[in-house]
Amino acid sequence: MSRMLPFFAFVLLAALLGFGIWWNSAHDPTAVPSPLINKPAPAFALPRLDEPAQTVSKASMLGKPYLVNVFASWCFACGEEHPVLMTEAKNLGVPVIGYDYKDDPNDARTWLAQHGNPYDTVIADPSGRTAIDFGVYGAPETFLIDGKGVIRYKRIGPLTPEVIAQQLEPAIQALQKEMP
Amino acid sequence: MSVAQPSMGSRPTTPSSRRGEGWGEGASLRSLSNLVQRSIHTARRSDMVHSEPCPITPTRSPKGRGSKRLKLIGFIVMLTLALAANLASAQAIDPLPFRDHAEELRFQHLTSELRCLVCQDENLADSNADFARDLRHKVFELMQEGKSDAEIKQYLVDRYSDFVLYDPPVNPRTWLLWFGPLLILVAGGVVVASTIRKRARAGTPAAPTENGDDW
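YS: structure for the whole thing
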């Protein structure tokens, strides 16, 4: 029995290694979990990109669920995500708010004119100060906020057709079931 | 060694006329200048005073390439390089209107305990990332509002989770992290103790001389 001990120890270590490899390929080890899920979204009031005189605030959005998609014209991954939003945004069943993050409004307007605008409304946060309250640390990030202003889902990184089908749409459907 | 070497190698600040002499001087000189660099580094860490790059420029000697002189020149070159590399990689230079030195030290201490979430192996104090600068400004702003260090940390944890802290807090999720090594140590101790006891009871010598146990 004791002669088998090293073998068992080896199997244990190999299993541990295998688990580590599996875990890190199934999870993104650099993703920061958002503590804001199921917490009220921070209060915000940001100007619209196309009409800076008008602001969109948390209070003005209450009542119906909506999606906030953080993007920027300088953000490479947003360019990859953009075509997905162009085809999927209208089918989600909730308004999609574009959140222009730490960007020159002119650059953002040009970018949207060139690539198309999948958003119902675009709000601009050139300083990125409000984004800190949302726990944003990069773009793209996407938040699903329910009618009571509570964050229900967050995606860090680009939305892909798989992510939308497997995570976002079920989350939206769950919200719509709650609605009276 | 590993701390200083890469940044020195990649610095484009080598005075071109000195390069051959400086780099040709071998390992002893290099490690000496590393030592100098590290002590400068430590000094800078403990007392954050931003200064202008030190204007040490080696003077070229007309004749006489004795090995002592060569070493001296090489040393001066390395020292210059070390200083240049250090100043360039110094804590992200970001002038903030501190009230006094104590407040600045507090700020430096606090931001060095917070993680930059973009470049996750750097702390907020050292990172040059744009996002890190935003968070530093936020920390500064919260300090001006009279928030305590704990409140500022909590503010960031509320938004960015425990991940933002370099020291993971002790809670049920991190028990394995904190006490796992101790557990392994205890388990190893139990195995060793039981083996010794077994051998003592059997009366065999500690190291078996000739049996099949050759693992």
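YS: worth flagging: The interface with chain B takes residues 2-3, 6, 30, 32-36, 102, 127-129, 132-135, 137-138 of chain A (CB under 8 Å).
IM: good catch. Also The mean pLDDT of chain A is 91.
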